[in-house]
Design goal:
Largest sheet of chain A: none
Number of helices of chain A: 19
Structural class of chain B: mainly alpha
Oligomer: heterodimer
Organism (chain A): Streptomyces djakartensis
Largest sheet of chain B: 2 strands, antiparallel
Pfam family, one (chain A): HD_5
InterPro entries (chain A): Cyclic_di-GMP/3'3'-cGAMP_PDE, HD/PDEase_dom, HD_domain, HD_GYP_dom, HDIG_dom
Mean pLDDT of chain A: 78
Low-confidence stretches of chain B: 1-7, 409-415
Helix content of chain B: 55-70%
Number of helices of chain B: 15
Number of strands of chain A: 0
Keywords (chain A): Membrane, Transmembrane, Transmembrane helix
Number of domains of chain A: 2
Shape of chain A: elongated
Protein name (chain A): Metal-dependent phosphohydrolase
Distance between the termini of chain B: 11 Å
Number of domains of chain B: 2
Chain lengths: 455, 415
């Protein structure tokens, strides 16, 4: 057990004590023991299988098998229903240390959630509706129970964040704490929709369980849910692989031109900051990040000798290098999801006054995405060391951008970058895999050259 | 890259479906509809399921909700505690009418209902209803207990899915000459994906309608819709991934190391050969990705190989480029298996995995046939046959010859 704050331990101990009280009175002979054991075994087994390496659902958000728990809440008295969650939670696979503490916490949280849901459902008279299969009327109590379940989980999670035992560990912090005001923000909104779907599945299980067709039919309800979880996990795996491949496009440039290593990622990051500052929606921000990452991909088509040349270029050589936006566009035009990023790759060397290349577009003729990337590209070129110049401080680079705004760059984009850097500072990552190397303070403070980013 | 179209069904299958549909419609029109409310509710659900269908997604079952609702209507024996009386004819007629109705917007937008899809839907529903409705109406299942009845429905639907898979695999074999085993294996694999969700939902819906009445329909559709959404996203990201890999493959072309379209042609031809040799779908994906990226190692060369033709280089040099390529692929996060194929493409064929043998032979064929001018393809194939002293695997060369003889891919010079 490493560095868990004392107040976090106290908080978890309190939650565990409350959960133990919920489990009282212990189920007696009158309980539906077969249902209890079957559901508990089902929950434990499913959790185990789903998180094993074979299925590979470890990336899935927690709480995959809530339908089983909610079915228990709709079928059994509150203490018995709460007991269903215990074996599964205590045996569950935990990736991060401290393992025992996390398991206990998970069990306590689920016991409290399921107990509350079962109580609410019982008080509203849902149990009888489930037995008679009285459909429109069983939806109300079930809905209230699901809402209660969701609220309890969110409340406990928010509390855990507030006492500082939940923020994902980073290289700098093992146990980050979150300001109390922010701890609960969005927790309910984010989890309500998935839990509502789980609740519907749980309700179906409960109804079929009590029907003449029995538990066999109830288990069938889980199958579509399992299939959808599997597809979801595959989706995440494939998406991660896809993003790695996009990065590979960039690494292919690095093979030829080691000097610009990290440049693409940093331009992607600066483009993203500008896009956010302009209030674009998340999807467009993501596309602009790709635009920044891929803007120089056409350099693959430029002879290595020219890219690595140290001295000044002849006009002939310059013309060859200036072909790279067109090469890049030729490469990425087949990738549908890049959208307007493809235009950015083609036009990122256009200037507002029409003196840029390849087409010499002017002002509004230049696509917005290209105007964003042009600013981000110039900014990173100035703040990093090149063969022909040393790195300049961030403040100097921003001032230079502002000087050229209107003739070369779009003033709107420049202003957005100045604002974004002024607020958040400039903290480029070397590659997308590596953590942040260093943080350059907002302009005003003396900026130093960044270690690790250069060769 | 899709030089090989998805299978078109036998005309026989279409004829059977048309016959069944016409007969059912005639009987239903003559006898009138039993339990209109139930028929209407199921029809509505099938139509909605059909509306959410999206053509072009790489899913074997494009409208899972429609399929599940259709199957459960064929298996329905009771609604809200009262027995139902619709027979085989009405089940088929309602499913057909609802499917057609749900296809109207698709037709209006120009992508009509695929006949294969409709024919298969009609035949499976007809099969299920024929197995279930006559014995049920004669009271043969009356003394079965509840759980046994649930298992019966499940078994019936699984049998249907199996027949459907065979039905889909047979024409694939007759058209492309692909071995039956792998084709059937791919179809069965699809059954385990979204297919199992459709089967389970179909059975559960029929049971739940019997218990709680028609209210069950919307409630029980939700998990299946969720599964459908997950599969769509999965299919979409796979398609995007493929485009990206193709673009990565074009890096060597843009850089002037290889001729335009080379990687794409090698990939298409490799896939065809792989199919002919009986690889399964996941193996084909690895093969295709590896073929697309087989030349990526050349990016590390300072001087381009003339015309990108690696087949003529000394073995050691070929192997060096292959290892460089494998290193690049390994860094990309693409499946490890792809990197292995790229790395081993220049090894002696006895030591190579099958996919690497295919890539090597097809690459050599593509390069030689391009150099050879008008008679290039034939000379290239002859070269490969003669050179099989450990260089190109004989069985791969024979398969390549079969594929070339069958398709019009003799000299795909169009960019």
């Amino acid at each position: 057990m490493e560095a868990v704050p004392a107040r976090a331990r106290v908080y978890i101990a309190c939650a565990t004590a409350a959960a133990l009280i919920c489990l009282l009175p212990p189920p007696d002979a009158g309980t539906d023991w077969p249902a209890l054991t079957l559901l508990a075994a089902l929950y434990a087994g499913c959790e185990r299988v789903a998180r094993s390496r074979f299925v590979g659902m470890s990336s899935h958000p927690a709480g995959t098998f809530y339908p089983v728990l909610l079915a228990a809440a709709f079928l059994l008295p509150a203490p018995a229903a709460a007991l269903v969650a215990v074996p599964g939670a205590l045996l569950s696979h935990v990736e991060r240390r401290p393992v025992a503490l996390r398991r206990i916490w998970r069990a306590a949280q689920l016991v409290l959630g399921v107990w509350t849901a079962a109580r609410v459902h019982q008080v509203l008279g849902g149990r009888d509706a489930v037995v008679t299969g009285d459909c429109p009327h069983l939806l109300g109590p079930a809905g209230a129970a699901v809402l209660a379940f969701c609220l309890v989980l969110a409340l406990l999670d928010g509390g855990r964040l507030a006492v500082g035992a939940g923020a994902p560990p980073t290289p700098l912090r093992q146990w980050g704490s979150v300001p109390v005001r922010r701890a609960w923000r969005g927790l309910v909104a984010r989890s309500l929709a998935p839990i509502a779907v789980h609740g519907l599945a749980g309700l179906m299980m409960a109804v079929l369980w009590r029907s003449p067709y029995g538990p066999v039919a109830a288990l069938l309800v889980l199958l579509p849910m399992c299939v959808s979880w599997w597809a979801f996990a595959q989706y995440h795996r494939e998406r991660a692989a896809h993003q790695a491949t996009i990065r590979a496009l960039v690494q292919a440039v690095d093979i030829k031109d080691g000097y610009t290593r990290g440049h693409s990622e940093r331009v992607g990051q600066a483009s993203m900051m500008i896009a956010r500052e302009l209030g674009m929606d998340d999807e467009r921000v993501e596309v602009l990040r790709f635009a920044g990452i891929l803007h120089d991909v056409g350099k693959l088509g430029v002879p290595t000798r020219l890219l690595r040349k140290d001295g000044p270029l002849t006009p002939e050589e310059r013309r060859v290098i200036e072909l790279h936006p067109e090469y890049g566009h030729e490469m990425v035009r087949g990738i549908g999801f890049l959208g307007e990023a493809r235009a950015a790759v083609l036009h990122h060397h256009e200037r507002l006054d029409g003196s840029g290349y390849p087409y010499g577009l002017m002002g509004r003729q230049i696509p917005e995405s290209a105007r964003v990337v042009a600013v981000a590209d110039a900014f990173d070129a100035m703040t990093s060391t090149r063969s022909y110049s040393r790195a300049r401080p961030v403040a100097v680079a921003l001032a230079e951008l502002e000087r050229c705004a209107g003739s070369q760059f779009d003033p709107v984009m420049v202003a957005a970058l100045v604002d974004a850097v002024g607020r958040a500072g400039w903290c480029p990552a070397v590659t997308a895999d590596d953590a942040h190397t260093s943080r350059v303070p907002p302009p005003g403070a003396p900026a130093s050259s960044r270690p690790g980013a250069r060769r | 890259m899709t030089a090989y179209r998805p299978p078109r069904q036998f005309p026989v299958v279409h004829a059977c479906a048309a016959l069944l549909a016409a007969g059912s419609l005639a009987v239903t029109l003559h006898d009138g509809l039993e339990e209109r409310r139930v028929a209407l509710a199921f029809g509505l659900l099938i139509a909605v399921g059909e509306l959410t269908r999206r053509n072009g997604a790489q899913m074997r079952e494009p409208a899972p909700l429609g399929a599940a609702a259709a199957l459960s209507y064929a298996l329905l024996g009771e609604a809200g505690g009262r027995p139902t009386h619709h027979g085989l004819a009405q089940a088929v007629a309602v499913v057909l009418a609802a499917s057609l109705l749900g296809s109207v917007p698709h037709v209006a937008r120009g992508h009509g209902p695929t006949l294969d899809h409709l024919a298969r839907r009609v035949l499976t529903v007809g099969f299920v209803a024929a197995c279930f409705q006559p014995p049920y109406s004669r009271g043969m299942f009356d003394d079965w207990g509840g759980p046994a009845y649930a298992l019966l429905l499940l078994a019936l639907l699984s049998l249907t899915a199996l027949c459907d898979a065979v039905l889909a695999a047979v024409p694939a074999r007759s058209r492309t000459g692909r071995p039956f085993g792998p084709a059937l294996r791919d179809e069965l694999r699809a059954v385990f994906g979204i297919g199992s969700a459709v089967i389970a939902t179909g059975a559960v819906m029929a049971l739940a309608v019997a218990v709680v009445g028609l209210w069950a329909l919307p409630v029980f559709s939700v998990p299946l819709l969720l599964a459908q959404m997950s599969f769509r996203r999965y299919a979409a990201v796979r398609a995007t991934y493929r485009q990206t890999i193709a673009s990565l493959a074009r890096a060597t072309e843009v850089a002037g190391y290889t001729p335009a379209g080379h990687a794409r042609r090698v990939a298409a031809l490799s896939r065809a050969v792989g199919r002919d040799m009986g690889l399964t779908e996941p193996e084909l994906t690895v093969l295709e990705h590896a073929a697309l990226m087989h030349d990526i190692g050349q990016l590390s060369l300072v001087d381009p190989v003339p015309a990108g033709a690696t087949a003529g280089l000394p073995d050691a040099e070929q192997r060096r480029i292959a290892l460089l390529g494998g290193a690049v692929v390994r860094r990309t996060g693409v499946d490890e298996a792809v990197a292995v194929v790229v790395e081993r493409q220049a090894d002696p064929c006895a030591e190579q995995p099958l996919a690497a043998r295919i890539v090597r032979a097809v690459n050599a064929y593509e390069e030689k046939s391009r150099e050879g001018g008008p008679g290039g393809p034939l000379t290239a194939l002859e070269d490969l046959r003669l050179a099989t002293a450990g260089e190109y695997a004989p069985e791969v060369v024979e398969s390549l010859a079969r594929v070339l003889a069958r398709s019009s891919l003799t000299l795909p010079m169009t960019g």
